[in-house]
Amino acid sequence: MGVVMQTLIQGFEERNLAMTKEAEKLAHYWGQRLAAECPEQSIANRESIILWLLGSESERFDHFNPQELKIAKQAMEYRWKILRQRYLGVGRERAYRQLLIRLASLVTLRNKIQTWVSLSRDRQRSVMDVLQEVIQELLQSDKYMQQQMACIAEFTNDKRLRDTLLFASIEEYSMRPVRNQPLLVYRFVNYLRRIQRGGLTQVPGSDLIRLVSEEILSEDSDHRVNLADHQAIAEHQEAQQLEDQQALRQLVQQEFAAYLQETLGEEAVDWLRLYLQGKSQDEIAKKLNKPIKEIYRLREKISYHAVRVFALKSKPELVDNWLATSLQENNLGLTQNQWQQLYENLTPLGRQILDLRKAGDSIEAIAQQLKFKTHQVMGEWTKIYLAAQSLRTQE
Fold it and tell me: Who's near 312: CB < 8 A, 6+ residues apart?
């Protein structure tokens, strides 16, 4: 470990970045953390991640009082959690999709976008389409994000790692609470003002903010609100996690209902709506005026599509985020003992496929590597997924 830290410190010196006493302690701590938690990353990548966590002005740590230093450490833990859970070691396209899903899970923002789309001239646009435009404008016009991009470019020459750190920075910045709302909500309102299109005309002008630094003026005075208030971030996390979980649940329901409408028809959507209201199969049969046998058959069809198509093929990342069953991040939602049990019960081929999927390979890539047809690999992966689901249910 001493050699690793010596290499890290040397790397800092080569970049002409001053390492103050407190910053050096933090760098040493994060060097040990990253070596233990992501040993697959090169020393150069770990060095860049530490620089990103510490920020460009490491000398500020020596001027913090104990409480401020504690808050700064919590902020670094928060950034690391975001990076580790959703972006580190993940392909660029998938990481970007996960960023969109994460931001689209914000209830307030999604409702504002949906309202605006319904009132605008172009009603065919989805929440994701508008969200991508807002993010693009954030990168082009927001001074803080431009500074972050400049720092990231200085921290690493690895294009993949640059993208990874940028996605994590966008999420962390977008989620910062300003007057009990995520910052991205205000950026969306600004976006509406700039494009000068109809919709959301009832939003007060006082809610519009212009980001020219890390500070904004509050709505009723010249008092400045610091957007880098790490204490607010720390206090916001617990409530935000609950809201995000509820938002993801609602998003999954909406997407699954749309899928059922397309594949099984309106009757399946009605069944889902009544089932989510807590109705029994007998009650659903009476509501839909159908024989109970037909309702049971419909339930079996919906269950089949929910697990084998929607969760596995259509929207796997959305479902995994909601249930916390991602293979890379959550080991399919299994405890360590359950994971070991699953692995031991698999065939040699199943273990090989599981290892490759864990490494991030797609079904198509695995099929090509193992010289199987895609549907054969998908069949084996389905068996693994259902076995993991069975273990979770037993727990």
Answer: 378, 381, 382, 385
